[in-house]
Design goal:
Blueprint: H1 3-29, H2 37-57, H3 60-88
Helix pairs in contact: 1-3, 2-3
Length: about 90
């Protein structure tokens, strides 16, 4: 394994791990009131694009990190959309 590969794994682990506390808090409380729908829309779209890019070039760390982050972002996004719809209805 090259130093560059190790750097990729470390970066993937850090960015994914940094997102977990927000996801856990949002899931536990069921509240996304203070979160921006635009931010999570862009985050979800961006991580899905990075996942697709990683798939296209066969980069497993890139796919793993962005697949996990996209999954967590999708859950938060869904909670946020539900909150917005409840508020409107």
């Amino acid at each position: 394994m090259t130093y560059l590969s190790i750097l990729g794994f470390v970066a993937a682990a850090l960015t994914t791990a940094a997102f977990i506390p927000q996801a856990v808090k949002t899931i536990r409380t069921g509240s996304a009131e203070d979160l921006s729908l635009a931010t999570f829309s862009m985050l979800l779209a961006g991580t899905l694009c990075w996942f697709a890019y990683g798939y296209g070039i066969g980069d497993v760390p890139l796919m793993a990190a962005n697949g996990i982050t996209a999954s967590l972002a999708a859950v938060i996004f869904a909670i946020k959309v539900q909150a917005v719809l409840r508020k409107q209805g």
